[in-house]
Amino acid sequence: MCGIAGVLGTRAQTSHLIGPMLEVIRHRGPDDSGDYVGDDFAFGMTRLSIIDLAGGHQPMWSADGSVGIVYNGELYNYREINEWLSEQGQAFSTHSDTETIIHLYERVGRTSLPDMMRRLRGMFAFAIYDRNRDQLILSRDHFGIKPLYYRVEATSGSPVVSFGSEIKSLLTDPACPREVNRDAIANYLAFQYNPLDETCFRGIYRFPPGSYGVLDLRTRAMAIETYWTYRFDGTGSSDVEALLPRVREVLEDSVEHHLIADVPVGAFLSGGIDSAITVTLVQEQRKAQGLDPVKTFTVGFDQVSEYAEAREVADRLGTDHHEVHVALEEYLGVLPQIAWYFDEPVADPSAVALYFLARAAREEVTVVLSGEGADELFGGYRIYREPLDLDRVRRLPRPLRALAGRVAQSRRSFPGRNYLRRAMTPFNDRYIGNANIFKPQELRRLLRFPVADDTLVAPGRELAKMYPGFDDLPESRRMQLVDMHYWLRGDILAKADRMTMAHSLELRVPYLDIEVADVSVAISDDVKYRDGTTKWLLRRAFRGRVPESTEARAKLGFPTPFRHWLREDPQAVLAPIRQSLFLREILDMDVVEELAAQHAGGKADNSRRIFVLLMLALWHDAFFASDRASG
User: Fold this and answer.
1) Higher-confidence residue: 536 or 54?
2) What is the mean pLDDT of residues 194-210?
3) Are 454 and 404 part of one and the same domain?
4) Whose CB among 12, 109, 296, 431 lies 3.0–4.6 Å from 116's, allowing a Cys bridge?
5) Residues forming the active site
6) Domain count, the chain
7) What is the chain's mean pLDDT, rounded?
8) pLDDT of res. 386
9) 256 with 311, same domain?
10) Can you list the alpha helix ranges (DSSP code H) found in 452-605?
């Protein structure tokens, strides 16, 4: 795993910039580094050595020196691609998957970039320099597991200036303006992460997943094209007997490919079904190869943990299990560091648990497998079952539906009012993903600057523009697509990458594999949700190989006791919010104090909202007000 960076301009301009751009992301790759400074651009990388420890130095070049690459990621099918390339007469000088991409570009990419990209199975972000064409090819993996950002010229908003694995690389350029993107901040307060293409820094954009861009080094213009997107296969199959072996086989194959490494590999283990399946498959394969038990890791707190549930799986499988404990003081003390590692504000309380978990795991292994993506692909969130319940109201005769709508709008509180309101609210106005922190009317009361109607992202409407037939899909499938395009990318994968790479630990996600995705698109809803549970087919596929209690357990996912801590020691949490000049500038602090008082008095659980404000304050401190703000 690595960090990459690049900057466009003359040799005199870029030669002194590329070093600091790489140094600020050395946590992504402490084992090696390298750069190339050309006449009109420079790029480089910092390397965490995983495969071919001695032979994978970057930038890596083709035999004739016409193609060079900096690459962050792992290509899990590189051996299969190498076999095909060898049959075409290609010779190899290393055992690194980086060389695979160079030769695949030479053989396929120069003719058809989409064909090249679709052959790749893995997680990646890379930049290929084609000297003969005087262009750079930027690309990012199918799901957006690995990050990639680029900055455009502030005045024109078109020519690309720089790119990198993390925003902080781009910010090391003294010419890079640091201007807060208020539209992104407004959306962050709604989603708990920024869902826009433009980041919280004006002029800096995230490169879209499943896409490649051709960057002309003469004009600095970049044309971005999509090479892959997740699409459902009709209504899907309900043939359980045919689907069960397909699910088992594809996950067994994915885990096998994700275990390829020349360094120690472990796994995160919560108390849920996703990580239990992953660890089961890892342990089975290690046992078959005569290897030692896999090292597994879980995290917990005094007030809440999944120790017992994770231990149940670990004991049954015989893993080398490790438990990590986090106290309130540790949790709060590390938040400023976490805000810096994230680059943008992300207010997921479990990210802090993951930070400590990754720190402990790195003392034992260099790579870990984890269960991210199973919920989005196999229908794991309980809210995906909501449309089944809401249909009871929607199927009522029209006069009764009209009456239900009027009752739902009543100001009087009564049992079931929220249920009626949700049933009568259109999907695009109701669902923005797994986190919905401040609603539009609440934002307008909280913010001291105006929020236009089109400022806030409506995921359903955005997906309908790019996804033919989106509005005709069942609501549960629309929910899956919203979460895959927004929640998964903006929150789940962002915290997975940043919290592990903060400790130079590579995290791999075998559920987010294109072969697994091809199976998941063909599963009908009625076998995703059955017997009152979610991910029914996935659970059933591994019945007997994971503990029965684990198969039936609802999702937890490294829970945190933040709401309890907020009541126990409110000043420790609220002090950074109250002291933030930035928050005083953009927020009505009377509304903030009202939220704090409601939570302290037990009138409402405002812990998530307060955590969102806390991480916003710490993010601004990290990048605009602290010593680290200069990079």
Assistant:
1) 536
2) 97
3) yes
4) 109
5) 2
6) 4
7) 91
8) 85
9) yes
10) 459-466, 475-482, 493-501, 514-520, 525-528, 536-541, 548-552, 562-568, 570-579, 581-586, 589-600
